[in-house]
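Title: Comparing notes on inverse folding

I've been comparing how different people in this forum approach sequence design from structure. To keep things fair, I'm posting one structure and asking everyone to reply with a full sequence. Here's the target:
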């Protein structure tokens, strides 16, 4: 890694991560004539989540034309729902089109972010012991990069292969093998149909049933792609149509005690029952919670895969793992050559993975000891000139997360321009607290707070993941900076 600074002069902005957030941040900064920047990515490739997650069937569950930058539409998406490789290729193309490679450092894992209060500079430490200084830091590392690995009794004694979907190894041959898949949510429903094609048996351990709706995926025709390329206004209109459909149809479902949601749940359960041949599975697959309390899943091929003779759905918890088989709580034995963990991510650890010390030497973990909070998901009191993308309560429950990212980046660039290199900009503690009280009050009126257990909730049962309102509201919220919400102080002078 070569630090992207000369004469040890601090960068204006250091960006962590090379996914949608980091790439977008670099573009927005350069467009604002903030050129003394650098991007640091811990892996060896572009794409963030879409570089790391390459399991069979990996795809986006947001329509392709909405899952891209508004300023860089792609008329050539091959499917309504883009596959992993195509999304990664899109981001690589964006990096090249905007000439970002001179600013990029790969294999550069940030370990510590330490504020030097004597100079007002962030000291950024890397795994290889390099230190880079910066006036501002943008953390663009997403939440889908720290796999959650459950601790099962006997797992260390298993003699076969074990891998998480986020750490897929192509060299592991599943053909003709007894495969056990643990999990049944977002990544599982994508990998199951692919794995089921070639394995001898696929035993799926399901903890909680999910609402699964048809994805309605299809290929875009060559004529459609040509029209989108020839008429940019048509592509823009199509994107707007998708956006408003999600805003007007999906968002009402997540309101607590929604009649629309209750009716939709009935239709979804009917779809499941009509799709699954074995009636004994119907109760196993029927959720006992309100629609939307957990993530709603999209799939066209999950239920046909479950119908296969070599696929078995198990709702009994795992008791222990033996060298070549798994025993459930009912003492049933399941042969296992390979275990695949489709067990999600430790969402809350996306920021804790870096040791971060702000004013008065307080760590982020200390600041968030009671709850992970931020102001508009971007700013944290006590950590001036530190800016987050996809921070607490920015999750897009009903809209494209790329839309959320763009709004945050526009807002963050405004903050950076206001502060420049000579000033601190820091959200006031009371403002941050008041904002989060309001967020939690609004979340209490949503189905996400209706009582089910989900990854949306932290260890204290607080939803610090999702934004409580629709995408248009979030865009309006971040449309301008309220200076009265921030302290804008001159940095201390560096000692002679």
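Reply #1:
Here's my take.
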């Amino acid at each position: 890694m070569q630090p992207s600074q000369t004469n040890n002069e601090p960068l204006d902005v250091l960006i962590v991560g090379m996914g949608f957030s980091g790439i977008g941040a670099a573009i927005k900064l350069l467009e604002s004539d903030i050129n003394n920047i650098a991007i640091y990515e811990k892996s060896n490739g572009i794409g963030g989540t879409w570089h790391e997650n390459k399991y069979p069937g990996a795809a986006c569950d947001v329509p392709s034309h909405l899952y891209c930058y508004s300023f860089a539409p792609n008329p050539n998406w091959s499917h309504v729902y883009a596959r992993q490789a195509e999304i990664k290729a899109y981001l690589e193309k964006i990096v090249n089109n905007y000439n970002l490679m001179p600013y990029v450092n790969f294999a550069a894992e940030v370990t510590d972010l330490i504020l030097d209060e004597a100079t007002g500079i962030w000291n950024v430490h890397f795994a290889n012991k390099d230190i880079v200084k910066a006036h501002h830091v943008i953390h663009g590392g997403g939440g889908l990069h720290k796999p959650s690995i459950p601790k099962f009794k006997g797992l260390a004694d298993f003699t076969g292969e074990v891998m998480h979907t986020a750490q897929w190894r192509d060299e592991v041959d599943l053909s003709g093998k007894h495969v056990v898949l643990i999990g049944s949510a977002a990544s599982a429903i994508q990998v199951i149909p692919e794995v089921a094609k070639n394995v001898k048996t696929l035993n799926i351990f399901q903890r909680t049933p999910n609402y699964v709706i048809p994805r309605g995926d299809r290929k875009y025709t060559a004529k459609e792609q040509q029209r989108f390329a020839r008429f940019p206004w048509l592509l823009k209109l199509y994107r707007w149509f998708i956006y408003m459909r999600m805003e007007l149809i999906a968002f009402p479902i997540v309101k607590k005690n929604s009649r629309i949601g209750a009716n939709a749940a009935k239709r979804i359960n009917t779809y499941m029952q009509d799709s699954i041949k074995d009636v004994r599975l119907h109760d196993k697959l029927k959720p006992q919670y309100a629609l939307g309390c957990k993530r709603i899943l999209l799939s066209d091929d999950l239920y046909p895969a479950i119908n296969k003779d070599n696929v078995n759905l198990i709702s009994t918890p795992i008791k222990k793992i033996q060298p070549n088989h798994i025993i459930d709580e009912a003492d049933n034995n399941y042969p296992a050559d390979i275990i695949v963990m489709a067990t999600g991510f430790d969402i809350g650890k996306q920021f804790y993975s870096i040791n971060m010390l702000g004013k008065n030497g307080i760590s982020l973990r200390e600041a968030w000891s009671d709850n992970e909070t931020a102001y508009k998901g971007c700013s944290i009191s006590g950590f001036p000139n530190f800016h987050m993308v996809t921070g607490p309560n920015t999750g897009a429950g009903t809209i494209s997360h790329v839309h959320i990212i763009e709004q945050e980046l526009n807002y963050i660039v405004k903050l950076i321009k206001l502060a420049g290199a000579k000033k601190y900009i820091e959200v006031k503690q009371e403002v941050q607290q008041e904002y989060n009280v309001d967020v939690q009050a609004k979340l209490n009126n949503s189905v996400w707070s209706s009582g089910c257990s989900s990854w949306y909730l932290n260890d204290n049962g607080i939803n610090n993941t999702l934004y409580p309102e629709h995408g248009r509201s979030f865009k309006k919220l971040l449309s301008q900076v309220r200076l009265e919400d921030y302290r804008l102080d001159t940095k201390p002078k560096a000692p002679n």
